[in-house]
Amino acid sequence: MGIQLVRVRTAYADLSSRSGRRKRAAAELATAVGTLTKLEHRLVATPAPSEATKLGTLLVKLVAQQTALTEEAHQLAVFTPRFSVYMTRLRTVSARFDKTMSAIPKPTRTAVRGTRAEVLAANQNFLVQKMPPQPPRRPRSTHTPAASRRSSKESTG
């Protein structure tokens, strides 16, 4: 178990650094997960002596937690390279978006002068230009086809 824990710690350190061994971290962690899972199953299957039941329970719990931590580090090792590819693409798109947005002139505030009606008309014109046109809404019907059939049967019967 000690050797696998050292490998897990080394692989995790490789993940967090920019080392060349980073590519092998996922494979090392997968091997460690398999070994720790086997150890956990063997510990559960092996009965502890009566004097060491609490110690056996704690050991099984420790190995289960270490297995879960190693599995999580493995998932991180698999996820990180894929995520890095998307982040690189996102940086490119973001730079292009920033350049495009900086080319658009920024609106300036202008004071509107005139009568109250002219100011309200200018404000309404601004709101119309600002908001995209909305499709007309159809009114909802309050009756269902089944209700209309019932009412027609009642009136005929």
Q: What characteristics describe this protein?
A:
mainly alpha; 5 helices; 73% helix; 0% strand; elongated
Structural summary, described in words:
By secondary structure, the protein is mainly α. It has a domain at 2-102. It contains 5 helices and no strands. The chain has helices spanning 2-16, 25-45, 53-103, 116-130, 145-156. Helix 1 packs antiparallel against helix 2 and helix 1 (2-16) runs parallel beside helix 3. The longest helix has 51 residues, at 53-103. The chain is elongated. The N and C termini lie far apart (85 Å). The mean pLDDT is 79.
Brief account:
With 157 residues, the protein is an all-alpha fold. It has five helices and no strands. The longest helix has 51 residues, at 53-103.
List the helices and strands and how they pair.
Layout: H1 2-16, H2 25-45, H3 53-103, H4 116-130, H5 145-156
Helix pairs in contact: 1-2, 1-3, 2-3
Helix content: over 70%
Question: How many β-strand runs?
Answer: 0
Biggest sheet layout:
none
Rounded to the nearest angstrom, the distance between the terminal CA atoms is 85 Å
Total helix count? Answer: 5
The structure class reads mainly alpha
- Taking pLDDT < 50 over at least 5 consecutive residues as the criterion, the unreliable ranges are none
- Mean pLDDT, rounded to whole units? 79
Strand residue content = under 5%
Overall, the morphology is: elongated
SSE order: HHHHH
Query: What radius of gyration results from the CA coordinates?
Result: 34 Å
